[in-house]
Each structure stands twice: as C-alpha cells, then as structure tokens.
C-alpha cells in the first residue's frame, strides 16, 4: 500500500519535471533553432539579390561586392542570435555614415530580409525575434 503511494508520488514528480521543465537543460540558441549558418546564408542570399535590384535602394550597393556584404551580414546576425560567431566588419556607423539613407529605405531593406525569412520557412515568432535584433540598428544607419 505504502509502496504504491510512493510510486504514484514519484510518477507525479517525474511528470511535473517533464511537463514543467524542472531540469536545467540549457535553452537552444535561436541560431541553432533556425538551422545555423546554412539558413542565415540562404536568407541573406535571397534578400541581397532582391536588395541589389530594388529600384529605390539598389543604387546604394553599386560596387559593393555581394559576397562580402552577405558574409558580413551573416556573421553579424549570427552573433546577435547566439551563434558561435564574432562580427569583425566595420561598425554600422562607419559603413553607413555619408550614405544619407532615409528611414523608408531602411524599411525597404528590412522587408526584403523579412520576406526571405518567410520564404525559407522561419516561423513568425523566429522572424520577429530576428527583427527585434535588427530594429535598433536603424539608428546607426539612417540619416547619417
Ligand atoms: C538593419 C539594417 C542594416 C544592417 C544590419 C546593415 C548591416 C550592414 C553590414 C554588416 C555591412 C558590412 C560592413 C562591412 O563592410 O564590414 C553593411 C554595409 C553596407 N550597408 Fe548596411 N545595414 C543595414 C541597413 C542598410 C540600409 C537600409 C542600406 C541602404 C539602403 C544599407 C547600405 C549599405 C551599404 C551600401 C553598405 C556597403 C558600405 C561600404 O562597403 O562602403 N544598409 N551594412
């Protein structure tokens, strides 16, 4: 009788742990969750093709090597979403000062990144978590 009660109590504890997450398993980074470098490289590959040919913002990228920009963008976002990367490019102020990018142009670019995230199958939640990282960068890229 006592034994049965003990088994029942233990079962409840184990169930609570499994359902409530009482173990200290480290949370997987967003970087890993979305598929790491391969996914980011695809997202920026798709976005950059569209950005470079956009009638409003395409002209900014004349003479900017696609591969260089793609690699830097991947590195930067990788670092921002918990990946094992260290962005080593120019600061955002360095690379955007003097371009006189308008706020609406910033949103055009971000929409291309968002569209590419959707195209590769990220969830809205994953998309929003990445957009949240990009949003503050606006102040280091526009009206400079
Ligand atoms: C969230 C927004 C943005 C992010 C995260 C971002 C990020 C970057 C990064 C990582 C680089 C490479 C820096 C390097 O070469 O080391 C770069 C360069 C550049 N970005 Fe952005 N950028 C953003 C918005 C924009 C916008 C809105 C435009 C134009 C419409 C723009 C135009 C450029 C150009 C032309 C370069 C090349 C500059 C050069 O090599 O001289 N960026 N950006």
UniProtKB/TrEMBL annotation:
<protein>
    <submittedName>
        <fullName>Group 1 truncated hemoglobin</fullName>
    </submittedName>
</protein>
<keyword id="KW-0813">Transport</keyword>
<keyword id="KW-0349">Heme</keyword>
<keyword id="KW-0408">Iron</keyword>
<keyword id="KW-0479">Metal-binding</keyword>
<dbReference type="InterPro" id="IPR012292">
    <property type="entry name" value="Globin/Proto"/>
</dbReference>
<dbReference type="Pfam" id="PF01152">
    <property type="entry name" value="Bac_globin"/>
</dbReference>
<dbReference type="InterPro" id="IPR009050">
    <property type="entry name" value="Globin-like_sf"/>
</dbReference>
<dbReference type="InterPro" id="IPR001486">
    <property type="entry name" value="Hemoglobin_trunc"/>
</dbReference>
């Amino acid at each position: 009788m006592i034994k049965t009660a003990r088994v029942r109590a233990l079962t409840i504890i184990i169930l609570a742990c499994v359902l409530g997450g009482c173990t200290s398993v480290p949370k997987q980074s967003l970087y890993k969750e979305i598929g790491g470098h391969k996914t980011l490289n695809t997202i920026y590959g798709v976005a950059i093709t569209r950005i470079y040919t956009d009638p409003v913002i395409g002209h900014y990228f004349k003479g900017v090597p696609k591969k260089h920009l793609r690699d830097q963008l991947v590195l930067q976002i990788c670092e921002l979403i918990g990946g094992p990367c260290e962005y080593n490019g120019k600061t955002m102020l360095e690379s955007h000062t003097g371009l006189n990018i308008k706020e609406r142009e910033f949103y055009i670019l971000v929409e291309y990144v968002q569209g590419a995230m959707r195209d590769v199958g990220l969830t809205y939640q994953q998309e929003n978590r990445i957009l949240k990282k990009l949003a503050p960068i606006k102040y280091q890229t526009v009206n400079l």
